[in-house]
Amino acid sequence: MIQQRVCLRAHNTLRLASTASHYCQVTTTDELHEAATYASQQGLPLVLLGQGSNVVLPRHLNALVVHIALRGVSLVESALGTQVTAAAGESWDSLVQATVSKGLWGLENLSLIPGTVGAAPIQNIGAYGVEVKDHLLQLHALNLENGEVETLSGADCNFGYRDSLFKGAYRGRFAVLDCTFNLSYEAAPMLEYGGLKKILARPEIVSPQCVRDAVCQLRMAKLPDPSTVPNAGSFFKNPIVSEAQASAIEAKFPQLVSFKTDSGRKLAAGWMIDNAGLKGIHRGEVGVYHKQALVLTSSGSADAGQLKKLVEEIQQSVAERFGVLLEVEPQWYNEDGTVQS
């Protein structure tokens, strides 16, 4: 059922004040197709929402907002390994816990990331050395242009750092219906990040549950729970620069935190924000979290306009100090349903 003028504060983890001109919840592919058809007939942009954990919504959103609530998880054994398929509306962390409880390796490093399964490949979520692309076998998506269900392999998704084809050339074309992950019962711990190494000192005896517990311990120590402190997780991407540019910055700031990548050096955006003296600041109803400068928080009474001023202040300060422009990670919607580039 299509509703009009629906408050979206409870549908985004930043709890920003936002009202959708039209809204509905779908639990089947047919309902999703019907919603897309209605939006096309009415000339309305279509905005798809899961848990709203990686979005910034405007005060007024003139679009049909569709809450994806498809459910279901299944497991199949094959010669390729163990395939776990989860519907787009399933909680991501619940899926991780379910696979870990079965002793399956693959998703444990991605524990406690808020959001839904359907949103995970769009953002190519990642943490502690693992990304969704590392284990996604395939996904099904509804082509919103012709109503056909298409199968895309992991390679088809054109994954990059916090990026995929769903955020690029095919933005707005597909709605993810489910994802299939290839996991394994054979031990394959990824413990390269320092925090995990310290907690799991004897990797030869770890289990998926041990790694999940360690990841949860690390995340809870520095990241706020969106249910108690409204936030959208890491708000800025870690910028990737050339070795020459990284070395130039390091010459002025020897304590710079960075990591080598195939395309250059990834700089720790949180460290730069902290070094610029912005960690823990408040600007009215929004602020920078006092334990992790990558996280922006809201009092629960803010709107996108107030958040934008804080974001611009952070970007300007970091650019002036380090010569690097920080890129926003969440999808930031305009009032007409388009996404800011």
List keywords for this structure.
four-stranded mixed beta sheet; globular; five-stranded antiparallel beta sheet; 27% strand; 25% helix; 341 residues; 20 strands; alpha+beta; single chain
What does this structure look like?
The protein has 341 residues and is of the alpha+beta class. It is built from 8 helices and 20 strands.
Strand order of the largest sheet: 6-7-12-10-11
Q: What general form does the structure show?
A: globular
The helical percent reads 10-25%
Low-confidence stretches: none
- Largest sheet composition: 5 strands, antiparallel
**Ends apart, CA distance between termini:** 32 Å
> How many whole angstroms does the radius of gyration measure?
20 Å
SS class? alpha+beta
Summarize the structure.
The protein has helices at residues 29-42, 92-101, 120-123, 194-199, 208-222, 243-252, 269-275, 304-322, and strands spanning 3-7, 19-26, 46-49, 55-56, 60-68, 73-78, 81-87, 126-127, 130-131, 136-143, 149-153, 174-183, 231-234, 240-241, 258-261, 264-267, 282-283, 286-288, 295-298, 331-332. The protein has 341 residues and is α+β, with helices and mostly antiparallel strands.
